[in-house]
Each structure stands twice: as structure tokens, then as C-alpha cells.
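Re: [help] complex structure
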Amino acid sequence: MPKSKETVVTGAEKQQHEQIDLIRVGIGGKQVFIRSSEIKEVLRPKPLTPVPMGPEHMIGLANVHGQIVCIIDAGSVTSLPPCHREATARTRFLLLRHAVMHVGIWVDEVSKIQQVDHSLLANSGNNGDSISHIDIEGSACDLLHCNALLH
Amino acid sequence: MNANSKINLGNQVSLKQLANRNFMLSLFLFIVLIGIVFFASIRDNTSTGELLGVYDEQFRVGQFKGSISDVMVPINDFTMLPNAKNFGKIKASIKVFGDRYNNIKTISSLTDKDLNSIEQMNMMMAQVLDIAKDVAEGKIPASQSSQVAMIAQNLVLTAQSKLETIIKNMEAGLALKTVERKKQATLQLYILLGFIVLIILLLEFLNRRLLAHAQVVSKASSNIAESAGDIVEANRVQTNITEQQSRFMDKVIKGLELISVAGAKIPVATGKLEKNSSVISSFSKGGVVEINAALTVINQARASVDSLTANSRDISDNANQVLQSLEQIQDVADEANLLALNASIDGGSSITHEVQRMADQIRGYTDDIRTSISGVTNASGSVTKSARESITHVDKSVEVIKSTTDMLSRIETLSETNGQSSVVIVKAIEQQNERNKKILHVLKHISQLLHSSDDKLQAYQEASTRLTEASESLQNMS
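Output below.
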């Protein structure tokens, strides 16, 4: 019986019931979700080299595995509050997954990984904005679209 | 005291002497004034007499002048009838003329010139008489008697003219004398008025001096009255002070008597004090021994507290080491969580959630352990703090005990010294009692003198009051 049921499930339905990992992080005291597929690696804070005359959202440059990575403040380019730019034991750098650019964002903490249905993301109504809203466990949460930051 | 009481005492003259001198001087000036008036009156009378004499002489000359015309009547009669009878009339008139001439010649005011004129007139009259005699004797014809009479008349007129001149001269001299007399009278009047003014001014000056002297006397009287008032006031104050001194002296005497009685009791009390000092000395010695024993116990307690402090410090150090280990455990858990997170991102591992749950449990355990250790550390800190405070209190107590020991030692020494001093004090108090008795005797004598002085001051005050009344009377009289 279950086998026959699996056979009748279409691809769209399969994608709709697929579970997606979201990483819950804290930026400027606010909890935000990010797709784990947009993250390449989570790192402890590393020494940063400031960029003179650089934009305000650019915190500095870090050496990650021999690669120069630009660390930015997501709160400065979105509606999120700016991050605390003082490193603590809970501060992490999230390296974004991108084919060309090597960019990381500064988060004040990484809480956990949470799996949600794909349908929730489909209902979030992302229209190219960097922030959208999703309903997780009955509460409205912000979803940060990192790819939108790199456009 | 009044500051105006200083009066010039030089050349002092009494008021009576000054008044007598002024009276004598006024009397002298009045007599001089009467003399001057009398002298002026005499001079005035003399001058008036002189003027009257001159006027009389002038009258006599005028009368002589009028009498000359009497000669003309017999001459005219002789001219018309030249006989011996008429000649006798001429002769008689000539004789009358001669008598009057002799009378006139004695006038003293006539000048030599006037006398010469009168003499010439007399000679002319003598010639008239000779001519008339010649006519009467027929030496001159009767037909020529009219010419002779004309000549005689001319001679008479000439004589009248000369007399007129003399009278005018005399009138001029009289007028001159009258003017001189007026000048002299005016001068005498001015001199008299000046002298009167001088007398008045001198009398005013004398009166002013007398008045000034009287004012000085009045001022001196006023000063005396004020000074007497001050003396009375000072006397009153001095009397009060003396009475207060007497009362104070009586109180002092009573106090000294009480001191003398108390001084007799002091040796007994000093003997008791000596005994008490010996008792205190023995108590102090016992207190020092007891306190030294307590000090030994306290030092042992302090050593125990020090040991407790050291143990608390060891506990705190060990707790800190545990905390460091917990930090390392936490770091390892975080690293494992991070690795699991990255593994989940890369491939989606099923153990990620388990690792994350374990990391959260480890964090919870470490937080509990950290809380417990923090409690232990705080408790150890409190113990250490309490131990330090206890040590501080113990140290202070030790200091107090040492000070107490020193004080007891000093009390012991002082008690021994007091015992020795008490003997000396007893001897000194006995001597002091003897001296107090002598002082008491002297003070009683002083008290008697003060009472006597009080009586004399009251008498002095009465005398001052009388002096004040006398000064006021003198001031009123001035």
C-alpha cells in the first residue's frame, strides 16, 4: 500500500513535501533564518583587515583557507538591525555559496538548524527582496535571501 | 571728669579787687572830667571878659568920637560972635575934650599908630584952641573968624575921621578876637567831647574786663559744679564697689574657713587614697597576668583563622582551574557543533541534530557546573573576607589588649607613685592649713578696713554733695 502511494506522488508534490534546512542566526538581536544551501561554511571569527574608504556595510577582509573573503554587515544593506561588530564567543562568519564572489556575513550567533517544508518557502512570496517572511511553528519569522545580497 | 576744668591760673585777680579798681578809676576820671569842665568854664569866662573889655573900649572910643562934635557948637557960636564968652565955651569944650583924651589914651588895646593918631588929633584940637584964643585976644581980626572956624571945623572933621579909622580898627580887632574865641571854644568843646568819649570807652573796657572776669568765675563755678557731680557719682560707685568688696570679702572669709575645715579632712582622705593605690597596684598586676593569658589564646585563634584563609584561597584556585577546564570543554563542544553544522551544510548529515543536541546539553551542564563553582568561589571569597575581617578584629583586639596591658602597668606605676605622693601631700596640706589660718586673719583685718573705708566714703560723698551745692550757689551768684 505505501509503495503504491509512492508511485502516485508526482514530482511537484514530491518537491512540495521536501524538507529544507534553515539555519537560524541572530543579527543585531533579531532572529533570522537563512537557507543552508546558500551557506558554504560556518567559521569562527578571524582577524579582519579594514578597507579604507570602503562602503559602510563592508566590515573588513579575512583570510579563509588562503582565500580573501569580504565580510559584510547584512543589517547595513537590509531592513535588519546592524550587527554587533565586537566579536564574542558566539560570533560566527557565514561564508556564502557563490560561484565568483567570496563573501561572508557577520552574525552574532548561530542557534540551530531547523528543517521546514518547502511549501512554506514557496508561500513566503519572495519577489527579489533580500528579506521575506515565513510562518514557522505558528510565529512569523524573517528569511534572509543571501543571493539577493550579491546581485 | 569735665575736660573744661582747666582754667588759667596766672595773673588771678579777685572780682572784688577788680570792682574796687574799676570804681577808683571811674572816680578819678569823673574828677578829671569835672576839672576839665571847670577849667573850660574859667577860660570861657576870661575870654568873654576880654571881649567885653574890648567892646567897652570900643564904646568909649565911639563915645569920644561923638563928643568931638560937641566942640563944634561953641566954635560955630564963636564964629558968629567972637567974644570972650564964647571963647570960654570953646575953652571949656576943649578942656572936656582933653579929659576924654586922657581917658582914651589909657585904653590898652590901642596900637601905637592909634595913639599917634589920637595924639595928632589932640594937637589939632590944641591948634583950634590956639586959633580961637588968638581970635578972642584980637590977634586975628574978627573978620577972619569965619575962616578960622572953617579951619577948626576941618580939624574937627579930620579928628573924627581919624577916630572913625581907630574905631574900625578896633571893630576889626574885636571881630578877630571873637573869631579866635569861637575857635577856642569849639576846640575846647571837641577836646571835652573827646575826653568824655575816652572816659566812656575806658569805662566800657573796664566793664568788659569785669564781665569777662565774672564769666571766667562763672565758668570755673560751673566746672567745679560738674567736677563735684562727677566726684559724687564716682563716690557713689566707689561706695557700691566697696560694699561689694566687703560682701565678697566676707564670702571669701567664709570660703577660706570652709577650705580650712576641708583641709583638715584631706589628710584622712589621702591616707585612704594611699591604701586604695596599693590595692589598685595589686589589681593591676593580676590584670596584666590575665590579659597575657587571653593574648595567648587570641594568637592561637588567629593562627587558625590564617589557616582557614589559606584553605579558602586553595579552594578558590581549584575552582578557577575547573572553570578553565569547563571553558575548554565548552570550546570543544562548540567546535563539534560547528563541525556538525558545516557537515550538515555540505551534505546533510543525520547526526547533525544529535551533535547539536549534545552540544546544547554540554553547554547546559557546563553552565550548571559554572554556576555551582561560582557559588563555591563566592562562598570561599566570603569565608576569606570574613577571615580577613576576623584577623583585623583580632589584630585590633590584640592592640587594645596591649594598650590595656600598658595602661595597667602605668596604673600600677602611678598607684605606687600616688602612694608616695600622698605622704608628701599630707605634709603639704598641714602646712597649707597653717598658712590658710594666717591668710584668714589678714583677710579679716582687710574686711575691717573695707568697712572703715565705706564709712569714710559716705562722709566723703556728703562733703562732695555740699561742694556741689556751694558750686551751684557760686554759679548763680556769678
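The domain at 18-149 of chain A is CATH 2.40.50.180 (OB fold (Dihydrolipoamide Acetyltransferase, E2P)).
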